[in-house]
Amino acid sequence: MFNSGNNSPNGIPSSGGGAAGEFLWAVVAAPQNRTAVAVTALAGFAVFAIFYKAFRRRLKSPWSVRRPKPLTLQQWRRLFTADGIFRDGGTEFLKRVRSGGVDPSIRAEVWPFLLGVYDLNSSKKERDDIRNRNRKKYEELRRQCLQLLKCSDESLKLKESGETFSNGDDRGSESPDSDSSVDPQAVIQGSPSSEGQEENQPSKEKGTEPQSNEPATENFATWQRIIRVDAVRANAEWIPFSRSQALVTEDRALRAAKAVGLKDYDHLEPSRIFHAARLVKILEAYAIYDSEIGYCQGMSDLLSPIITVITADAEAFWCFVGFMKKARHNFRLDEVGIRRQLNIVSKIIKFKDLHLFKHLEKLQAEDCFFVYRMVVVMFRRELTFEQTMCLWEVMWADQAALRAGISTSAWSMISQRVPPTEDLLLYAIAASVLQRRKLIIQSYNSMEEILRECNSMAGQLDIWKLLDDAHELVMTLHDKIETAF
Amino acid sequence: MTGSSSKGGNNSYDYSFKILLIGDSGVGKSSILLSFISNSVHDLSPTVGVDFKIKMVNVGGKRLKLTIWDTAGQERFGTLMSSYYRGAHGIILVYDVTRRETFTNLSDIWAKEVELYSTNQDCIKVLIGNKVDKDSERAVSREEGMALAEEHKCSFLECSAKTRENVLQCFKELIVKILEVPSLLEKGPVIIKQQILKQKPGYQAPHNGGCCS
Å from A303 to nearest chain B CA? Predict the structure, then answer.
């Protein structure tokens, strides 16, 4: 990568190679000297070529091999002791996932580790306990959802019969049915956090988070409504990835839909009805669990791969909670999270390619708003289903390594010495833009044109190339970006 | 906001209009746009952020470039993107005739919308009730739609993105109105004016692009 220079087919200039580039020179020079005295000039050249190739491969990012090998079932099993504890605290595990993702056959087992549902130091026994506890907590959240659903149905009926309320505050207390006189807002605010969500409770940054009485326009009833509208519109890309759910019986699908009060699904096949019902169940539970975020469009995109891989609702829910710990900032009402990320993408581009950045400035597009969708749903709309899962796995492995305090020095192989970063996704996004630098500079004269290019990247990205480029950006810019705030 | 200048040929135009589609989640904004642009109808995922499509049309002997912005329905996406909505010549407000709340929400956001999106004082608005193909599930009557439109002094149409009934009409209605307002035509920046000057006298618009002609 570093030596490809401006000949790179995608036109990313490598001028920013810096320290990493010099390091490459030092390593490559050594074998050349040694071999030159031992063999003839010609043979020496051949040996050098082989050495050089081998070194280059080792020095390249873990993602520079086009089809890296995912973590397999056998490798996965070997990582554990008889008690089901990682032999090395999970370092080898994260290293492998980071360089090649996870084999589809073991995703359901592996993801809870990547998403922090299970601690990397936990034993099998501890995990069984956590799973049981989590299932109960999830069931409790579902009970509350059903109670609220009943409640909002009642208020809807009242509305339809002409008894309108002046605003949401009156709802519930005016309800004639004493059994369902639960105010959706009251339930959310009083709820389940009190019943010990300890470490799982999303972090609340005091002073920066909006207060929970946000614009009165969004409350649980609103979320319930939008969740249902979105669930039936979820695309069917997941179907080849879960045979059992793709073949669900019509009867089971309809029961699931009825249980959550799904509407407007007559045009869908049973598999999609079932998928929609599961989306509703988990998104609703999440809206109660994290009422600061509630539901925001785009969250269903993030959940869909999880419920495809993980068939038990409670487990899928807690994986989603793990995913959302970071992703929730994308959906904050005050938009702070999204602005911060757009700002980082902008900085990466500025440091890497000033020429491109100046062009963006000229078009008043330096805020990088055109990558908004990529940031919010984490490339889900630009990549295929399988590509998305691979990218996310690599990204989760980075985040898990940081959580577990596994530092760069613990990655034994030289090729792994890329600092894990919380923001790998943003480097990948910047890389996708940089890959199009020539086109943008030469042909695009407005923010709209760049937005259109970004919104139509679907099907055109090679994720390993993307990760390779992202890795190079991390290597050269990580320190600058981290300290630039 | 008039897009880039074009260098003659099929891309030249007399005016460039920016049009926004707004309304609740799931009312069919993206479907209406798709139906208008590509004559096709299929299921769409919820819109995240914004997207836009461009269509060239001929109306009243003028060649027009329409940049139609499709937005996410959920209000919380609004503030960050509102700057990209500015300077619209026309706004299409959409509700779903089978879901009453999408209709009432429209009147609620009306006041905010004016402040947020329409920096053009004379910006034209059209109220659209979508999904009339599901007549048996209708929850908002035609009369109610008309009344709301009258209250806000704008045109009103009902359509179906699915059957494409009235879809072209919605856009045509809007464009014809925009063309009647001199201030909206004057706002086109220099690029457009140059564009008009550049056009050769004998230029003829290709006939395949215009849906409204």
Answer: 14
